[in-house]
Specification:
Length: about 325
């Protein structure tokens, strides 16, 4: 099923893009350092030097990958090896792999390889690898991940199929191995993605949750009203907005809100900035509820009529 040895290489196009991107940041850091030197700002100079060193490291690393042409991933009968023939080389034995799953970080799909004894692996890593992978631990990620988009496109289906076979073989005591389980990249991502479906339900539970969240949004302008002593028209407006917000939200959610929240939910690593933007967006919807809600109510009425007609046909 799994060949004795199979090597997968990184896309040179992606590496060249990485080099260009890194060099642009190095240039930006140098420009920042120059301006900071003129202004005699030690803090900005330190930040600029950090940017220069960090992205110089990335640029040199990608240049070496292009020149050397070493495999990105090597799979044998016993282990999966990352960054072969480099200081970053690490071999993950199949017996130590607990599971794999797909997650998203910065809106890119990444394959996470979870190990039973990850702490032992980390202790045995070289200092270079510990420094390189330490941020994974800080971000709450597994030490070892694979970016499928970094692999050459023609080789990608074979890599995903072999990863699937590895996991199937680990489960072979209870389930037969299916050689044709994964034929497309989308199949693999769907199979190992813990967030399988977007919940688009619009029901009683949806409205209860909306009103619960609505109450929090209502609290901000209401407290502001109490503190500033604005006229009663403002109080009436925010009460109406409170009542209508779920009906305005339902239209936004149906158009793109469900999808957007699903994407954010899948992200791993820091997402608080995006969540703050979502709160700001929800506040805007709250204050525009008087204008958006009527459209949402019409949408719900049409939806109800269509559902009743479908039921009557059945």
């Amino acid at each position: 099923m799994i060949e004795n040895k199979r090597e997968f290489y990184q896309s040179k196009g992606k590496l060249f893009l990485g080099i260009i991107f890194s060099l642009l940041f190095v240039a930006f850091g140098a420009f920042m350092a120059y301006l900071a030197y003129m202004e005699e700002s030690i803090l900005i100079i330190t930040l600029a030097l950090f940017i220069i060193v960090l992205f110089s490291f990335f640029a040199v690393s990608n240049i070496l990958k292009v020149i050397r042409g070493y495999p990105y991933i090597t799979i044998t009968d016993e282990y999966l090896q990352l960054d072969s023939f480099t200081k970053s080389e690490v071999s993950l034995y199949f017996t130590d792999i607990e599971y794999i799953k797909v997650f998203e970080i910065t809106f890119q799909s990444v394959i996470e390889i979870a190990l039973y004894n990850e702490g032992d692996y980390f202790a045995q890593l070289s200092f270079h690898n510990k420094m390189r992978l330490f941020m994974n631990r800080i971000a709450g990620l597994s030490l070892f991940t694979i970016n499928p988009k970094a692999v050459r496109k023609p080789e990608r289906p074979a890599l995903l199929k072999m990863l699937d076979l590895i996991i199937q073989q680990k489960r072979s005591d209870t389930a037969p191995v299916n050689d044709n389980a994964i034929n497309e990249e989308a199949d693999f991502m769907k199979k190992y993605d813990p967030f399988q479906q977007i919940d688009r339900s619009i029901n009683r539970s949806y409205f209860l949750k909306s009103y619960g969240y609505d109450l929090i949004l209502f609290a901000f302008p209401f407290i502001l009203f109490l503190l500033t002593g604005k006229n009663n028209n403002h109080l009436f407006y925010i009460i109406v907005s409170f009542l209508l917000y779920p009906f305005a939200k339902v239209l936004i959610d149906r158009l793109f809100g469900f999808k957007l929240r699903y994407i954010l939910k899948k992200q791993q690593g820091p997402t608080h900035n995006l969540e703050q933007l979502m709160i700001i967006f929800d506040l805007v919807i709250f204050h525009l509820s008087l204008f958006i809600a009527p459209i949402g109510i019409v949408f719900l009425l049409i939806r109800y009529i269509v559902m009743r007609m479908e039921r009557s046909d059945n």
